[in-house]
Specification:
Layout lengths: L1 E5 L5 H10 L4 E6 L6 H10 L5 E7 L9 H14 L8 H16 L2 E7 H4 L5 E6 L5 E6 L5 H6 L3 E5 L2 H15 L5 E2 L2 H11 L2 E3 L2 H4 L6 H4 L3 H4 L6 H15 L5 E4 L7 H15 L4 E5 L4 H12 L4 E3 L3 E4 L4 E3 L13 E5 L1 H4 L3 H6 L4 E6 L23 H9 L3 E7 L9 H11 L3 H4 L9 H8 L9 H9 L9 H10 L18 H10 L3 H4 L2 H5 E2 L3 H6 L14 E5 L11 H20 L9 H6 L3 H13 L23 H16 L5 H12 L2 H4 L1 E5 L2 H14 L5 E4 L6 E4 L2 E4 L2 H9 L5 E5 L13 E4 L7 H7 L11 E6 L6 H20 L7 H8 L3 H10 L23 E3 L1 H8 L7
Parallel strand pairs: 2-3, 3-4, 9-27, 10-17, 10-18, 11-15, 11-16, 12-15, 16-17, 19-26, 20-24, 20-25, 21-24, 25-26
Antiparallel strand pairs: 1-7, 2-5, 4-8, 5-6, 6-7, 12-13, 13-14, 21-22, 22-23
Helix pairs in contact: 1-2, 2-4, 4-8, 12-13, 13-14, 22-23, 27-30, 29-30, 29-33, 36-37, 37-38
Length: 896
Amino acid sequence: MIQRFSSRRQQLTQSFLTQRLHGAHAYDRIAGYFSSSMLEVAGEALETMSGSIRVVCNSELDARDVETARAANYALRREWCGSQPERFNSPQAQERFARLYDFLRSGKMQIKVLPCAAFGLIHGKAGVIALADGRQTCFMGSANETANAWKLNYELVWEDDAPEAIQWVQEEFEALWQSPFAVPLAEFVIEDIGRLAQRTVIPQVEVWRDAPDPAAPLIETPVYRQEYGLWEHQKAFVKLAFDAHQAPHGARFLLADMVGLGKTLQLAMAGMLMALYGTRPVLILAPKTLLWQWQDEMRRLLDLPSAVWTGQQWVDDNSIEYPAAGPEGIKKCPRRVGLVSQGLITSKSEAAEYLKQLKYECVIVDEAHRMRRKNLGPQRQGEKPDPNNLLAFLYDLAACTKSLLLATATPVQLYPVEAWDLLNILALGNEHVLGNTWSNWRHAEHALDLVMGHQSLPLDDMELWGWIRNPLPPSAEGRDFEMLRRSLHLPDAVAVASGSDWSKLREPDKARVRRLARDFALQHNPCIRHIVRRTREYLETTLDPETGEPYLKPVRVELCGERLAKAISLPPYLQDAYTLAEEFCHLLAARIKGAGFLKTLLLRRVGSTMYAGRKTAETMLSTWQQVADTEDEEDREEEPFTSLTETERATLQAFVDTLEANQERDPKCAVVLDILLGRHWLDQGCIIFSQYFDSIWWLAHQLAHDLSKEVIGIYAGGQHSGVMEDGGFRPIPREELKQMVRRGELRLLLGTDAASEGLNLQRLGTLINLDLPWNPTRLEQRKGRIQRIGQLQDVVFVYNMRYKESVEDRVHQLLSERLAGIYTLFGQLPDVLEDVWIDVAFGQLERAKTTIDAVPQQHPFELKYHKMTKVPWESCTQVLNASNRKQYLSRGWGEP
C-alpha cells in the first residue's frame, strides 16, 4: 500500500513520522542533511524505540579525507567546528545536544557521513522503519532529517510497505552505510556535543578571575575550533605556567622543547592567560624576523590581539599604525600584548631603556639562547659572566615582571653554563628557582659539577642540608619533600628552609634527607625543575593509557641527497663564478670587523642559486644599503659598512660578467625536476624552500615552463604570494594558498623562510631544500611545516641540495660524522654551528673542527618532564565570553 503525504495538506510530524517511530524496533535513514534539531521533532518517539537508529548523510569531506581513520577524524572535527555549533546556546538547543549525546554515547544512534565526492550530494532521501507491531515500512521524499524539513518546509513524502519496496530502499541504505568512504562521527565530535549540552558563558573577565579555569578562555579559540586542538604536552606546560603565575612568586620557566613541538603557541597561550588574570602588560622579545609571525599566529590561532613595535611606531593586529613622538612612545603599546625586536636591545636603542620603566605581568623571550656571556669556555673559579647586550638587559628587566618565560630548543649550545645563565636570569627576584643569595646553586661551577655528575653531594649532614633546603623542592616533587615541608610547617609558597631547621627535624626526617642524597643532584636539582624539555621521540613512543595511542602521532623523516656523491656539480663557468664570489668575500673579510654576516652575504646567496647571487651582486654594485633585506636580517651586534674598494668592485663585476656571458641553466633546476617527476614527489605533494625570494622566483619561472599544466604556488612575505599558471603570475593571499593545498588544488608550493613559521602543510608529504641556510635552526623550521599534527603520511621525505665544493658541501662533510649524534642530542643543530659555515668560508678548517668537537656528547640536564599528565580541557563547559575577552586584551598599556 502506498500513502502520499504533503506538508501543505497535513503536519508531517503528526501524520507520519512520530506515529511510525513510536515503539519502533529500528530506523535506517538516508538523509542528505542531518541536524540535532530533528530531536525536537521526534526525540520522544525515538526514546521509545527498542532498537538502533542508523543515519547516513552528506559531508563536506574531501574523498582523500577518508583514506585513513586519522584523516577522517581530523576532517570531521574541522567540519563540525566550522559549523560553529556553539552559536546555538538556547535551553532548547542544549536539550537537543544532551539528547543527541545520550543517543550517540549509548550506541542507540549511529551516524556515518559520506564525502560529497563519493556519490555527489545525497539528494535521495529515504528510510526504513521496523514498526512496533512487527511490520516494516519504507518511505521516500524530499525531507532531510531536520526540524525545518519535518515542520516548516514544503515537503513531499511517499510511504510504501510493499516487501519489494522495503528491500529496494534497504539495499540502497546498506550500499551507502557499508561504503568504504562512509566514516562514523569522530570521537571529538561526540564529546563536543556533550560539552555543548552543558555549556555556560562567563560574561566578564573579572568574573572568570574568581575561579580562573585556564580552559575557559581557550576552549573555543580558533586553535580548537578551526585547527586540530592542542597536544597533551602543550596543555601541560600552559597549565604549569599559569598555576605558577597565580602564586605570589609567579612563573619562571625555560621551555626547551624540540623544534616542531609548538613552543610559540604554548608561550602565547600562557601569556594570554596571564594578561587576563592581571592588569599589567605582557612583553614578548623575539628576533626581528619572527615578530610578524608571532603576531600572525596569535591572531590566527588564539584570536589574541597584539601590537608590534617597528622602531618608530606600534602596528596592531589590524595593521593600524600608532605613530610615536619619540623613543618614549614604546611605553604606549595599544594592546595588552606587545612584541619588540631583540635587535632593539642588541643595538642599545634608547627606546629599549624605556622598557625598564614599566612593570609587567609576564615577559616572554623567544630564541633565548641569544642571551649569552662573552667569556664562554671552561669556567675558572669565581669567574663572573661578561654578558652580551641582550643578557645584560634581561638582568635588569627580570626584576620588572611577575612571570618570566624563556624559550629555546638549544639551551646549551656548547657549554652547560649557558643553560645556567638562563636559569640565573629566571632566579633574579625569585628564590624558587636557584634559592636565595646564599644558595649553593647560585655558584655555576659547583652547581654544574653536581648536575653533570662530576661530583657528589657532601656526606656531612649540615652541608648536605644546605644543598637540599635552598631551595627546598615543592610538595609536588615527591612524597619525601611533602613530608619534610609538613614537619617544618613550610608551605610551598616559601622557597627556602632555614639552616637551623635541621635541628627541628625528627630523626626519621633526617634519615629521609640522607636517603635523598643518592639521587637528588640528578633528579631533583632546581635546574631541571625550571627547564621544561620534551623530545619528539618520547612523545611519539609513549602511549596514552586511555587510548593506547602515542601522545604524538609518529611521523618519520627520511633524508635524501645526503651522500657526498649527491652534491650538485657545477659546469666550469659556474665554478669560475663561485670562485670569484669566494674571492670577493675574502677581500671584505680582510678589512671589515664583525661576526661575518655581511661579508659572507654573497656566498650565502650564491650557495642558494646562481640567479640569487647575480641579483645580489648587481644590487651591491649599485646601492649597497639595499642588500641586507628582511630575508637575511638578524638582530646582530655588527659594524655596518656602506662602500666597496676598487678591487672589491672589480671582483664583483667580474662575477656578474661571468654569469651574464653564459646563459646555461643552473643545474639545481634539473635536479628538482628529477626529484618531482622521477621520484614521483609531485604526486605526494611537495614544498620547496629557499632562504631567498630571488631563488624562489627564478625556480618558479623555470618550473612553470617545464610543468606547464601544473599550478605552482609561491608562499612568501609581503605582497609576493600567489600562483604561477598559464604562463603568468596571479597574486593570492597566503591564507588562500594554504586552503588550496588543503583542498588538494595545489600540490607544488615554493616558499621562503620569511613565511615558514605558521605554515601548516599536512597535505604535502615531501620537502626540497633548495639551499642549506647557514643558521641550522631554519632547517628544522622548514621540516616542521610537514612533520606536524595532521600529517597523513607515516613517512615524509626531505631532500637537501648543495653545490659540490661549495661552503655548504664542505661544512656538510665536516658535520656528517657528528650530525646524527648532535641532532639526537638537541633535537636540532645548535645555532652556534653557524660559526662553522663562516670559518669554512674563510678557510679556517681547524677552527671549524674545534667548534664541532666542542658540542657536548650528552645533554647536561635530565629530562624531568618526560612524563605526561592528562589535562582534560576538551570537556570544559564554562566558556569565557569571547567578545569580552578580546575587548579586555585590546586595551593598551596603562589603560584601566
